[in-house]
User: What shape does this take?
Amino acid sequence: MPLTLARGARRSALLDHLVEHLDGLALGPFGSARVIVATRETARVTSQEVSSRLGISAGIAYVTPAELMRSLADVAGVGADRSRWLGTPLDMAVQAALAEVAAAHPLLRAAWESDGSRPGRRRATAVRLARLLRSYVDLAPELVSSWLDGGEDGPGGVALPEAARWQPALLRAAVAAVEVDPLETLGAVLDAARRDPTPTLLLGVDHLTVPDMRVLGALAQDRPVTLVQKSGTAGERWALPLSTRTVDLPGAPLPPPVVAVHDSHGEARQVEVLRDELTRAFADDPTLEPRDVAIVCPQPERYAALLDAAFSPGDASGLHPGRQLRVQQVGGVEPNPLVLLLVDLLRLGSSRATASGLVELLLRPAIAHRWRLTDRHTVVELVSGAGIRWGLDSAQRSQCGLADVAQNTWRRGLDRLLVGLAVAPGDDAGLGLSGAEVVAAPDMDTVGSLCEIVSRLRHLIAATSDAATIPAWVRRCRAALDSLVGLPRADEWQQVATARLLTRLETDHAADLTQLTRHEFTLLLADLGTTYRRRAAAGNGSLAVLSLGELPHVEFRLVALLGVTDDVVPGRTGLPADCVDLGDAAPDPRIRRRDQLLEHALCAERLLIVRQARSQRTNDKVALPVAISWL
Assistant: This one.
């Protein structure tokens, strides 16, 4: 069946064609269709725009390429295998494979062997190489097929350089360890795509991996698929060779935007200037609404706190009028506090356990609620009065070569508090230890809680000192939470979410025998629990804050560029370290970021650029961002 490319200069023309095609499907009350879009934000906006034209958007699924691959893998029964290849099981498989392959390759052995100065080196190396293997499947599956069949050459049959000759062996060993063949998984997904009866369209997707394109071809094998792309974009360039028919949509392109550039100082001042200019724009044009404005920030996590603070609403008089603007919340989804606490508990064994640091840990809500540590002042006063400085006990101080120095440890300080409760001031009762004068009878419950918590922390450190498999680490984590943590009913969701995370780890690695040290497992848990995530909030009427590539081709009356610096655009090449030369098969991420920035600029009637031109400390001129000069 034909794969049709419909291209137009304006998003409105693309949407009109999309709606016309959807209307022509004549879907019944139980019918369904699928529209592939670039991002989740684009899915929300496109759904609203289709609804406004058709009156209803029921039965139409708006999915990203990744969501499409996941749903087809589930239909094919290989969803679990695909998750293992994309998740931590492959990381652990690569770590196990490295131990096997490194012996035959001196260069790899030098990078793999650890001298103890970098305890997280092995995990970092495994994660980086797992990312490299995934990129080969996305960019050059033929190369992966050749290596899995026993080949040792690079792309096109060219011999690999000496520094990369270990990669075929590592791929084969990792695939055997993870027990997932990525190409067999892809083949099952393609079979499911060929059998899928859902009418499919694609709207404004500029970048696809090789497996994504193969899935598109499989979907179009027995039924027509329409690609609706904007003219002159990367989406048109990859869709043109695949299409069997091309339709040019009417409409002239949007005229170039009116550009205003504002030089400023540091990040905080740039946000203030942006707020001033947006306030002025809304004051000058009463017809301008928040939904007509977008702030494009290549790294929103860098500016999240500043933007949320600058645009936080307030009712008090004298506040900046920009605080009345309805701006999308920029900060990401807060990580689970209980996971963060668990990470800090595991790190305690390799820390100094200072008085101030451990007091802050004990006063975390999950521990303080369990042990009724409600009076911060009392806890701080007791710890200070007991002379506690650092180290849980002399065994922990032995890491610093001070095993024979027990003074000012937590154990010695708590002993002094207990003596102070039990005997009269100035009398050691033959114990050889003077009591702390700061303690009194009303502090008995608090002192008892502190003693019990520290005793359990010492047990936790001893129980987690040896390397273990991930299922064993999950059991240790559950034991630590059971012995130390308690939450009120309103916060029990943290325990549920943490239990779900630990169960997923245990299930994914049930048969994995790779041993992880405490430091390596802590890094794994921190990566899973602290990843920056944002809710898809586009289309809610607020002023949108976008990262590069979000809402591609969506037109706004005003687009503001913030935080466009050389380290972001063009930024680094982005290709994984040790990647072999894939030629044109590996697109340059710098060109992609440049094109995304240009597309955001061309989708605006007015373009507002706020950039750093002077140092916030010395007021000296600084180098201007090169990407702004491109615009």
User: Anything to note?
Assistant: The first strand starts at residue 3 and ends at 8. The chain has a mean pLDDT of 91.
